[in-house]
Design brief:
Layout lengths: L3 E5 L3 H13 L3 E5 L2 H11 L3 E5 L7 H11 L3 E6 L4 H9 L4 E4 L4 H23 L4 E3 L2 E4 L4 E4 L2 E3 L3 H12 L4 E3 H8 L8 H15 L9 E4 L3 E4 L5
């Protein structure tokens, strides 16, 4: 069964190409050309996925992504002509699930779309049967997509939650950045180790008493990260 996809891009020709590829794969695609309309249509249609260009009039894609993430857990795939690593990582920090830099091939875009939709549809039933896991001060509820610290809810992006969920399944195991990229993105070749480092840095700010001296989400130098109970 096809998904409903909202395409937000101020380049009409590029947006039409994306729409045609999505339609050819059985999805329903709605196209908008500015950020304000993207928000309006996302709230009205409640799509499964938003393909979101960063540079748009009225509201830019980063603003739209931040607002969407505050209101829902809709999948967000960002498109950006910006090539600096910090610009790309900012989108992930705001809660985007994946990104592509322009110019990109439509076939690569569709591969990303398929991966995101597949992981989302596969993850829901799997998570529903899992109970709350507790590792030290951290509680993780996959069914509710919720993280708590000492019982207090903590807001996490999809990437951050995916890292915690993977590590909580095997406490004390050391995960390499490549292994964590597989859990958070599903497509390793276009991601960077820096992406995982940013997610971990943000998680520490949320779950650690002192992010500069983490007690649970630890660095294993030269290898990766591990999640521990923090009890010595």
């Amino acid at each position: 069964m096809g998904a409903q996809v909202l395409v937000a891009d101020d380049d009409p020709r590029q947006a039409e190409v994306v729409r045609r590829y999505l339609t050819a794969e059985g999805h329903t695609a709605v196209v908008v050309h500015d950020g304000r309309e993207a928000l309006d249509q996302a709230r009205r249609l409640r799509p499964d996925l938003v393909v979101l260009d960063v540079m748009m009039p009225k509201l830019d894609g980063l603003h739209v992504c931040r607002t969407l993430r505050a209101e829902s857990d809709v999948l967000v795939l960002m498109l950006t002509a910006r090539t600096s690593e910090e610009d790309l990582l900012l989108g992930l920090e705001l809660g985007a699930d994946d990104y592509l830099t322009k110019p990109y091939s439509p076939r690569e875009l569709m591969a990303r779309v398929r991966t995101l939709l597949r992981r989302a549809s596969r993850g829901a039933p799997e998570q529903a049967v899992l109970g709350v896991r507790r590792i030290g001060r951290i509680g993780l509820d996959p069914a509710r997509h919720q993280v708590t610290v000492d019982g207090v809810p903590v807001e996490c992006t999809r990437g951050e939650f995916a890292i915690l969920a993977a590590m909580a399944e095997q406490p004390e195991r050391v995960f390499t950045r490549a292994q964590l990229l597989h859990h958070t993105r599903g497509i390793d070749r276009s991601s960077t180790e820096r992406t995982i480092d940013v997610h971990v840095m943000n998680l520490r700010r949320k779950i650690e008493t002192d992010p500069q001296r983490p007690a649970q989400l630890l660095t294993v130098f030269g290898v990766g990260y591990r999640l521990t109970s923090g009890l010595s």
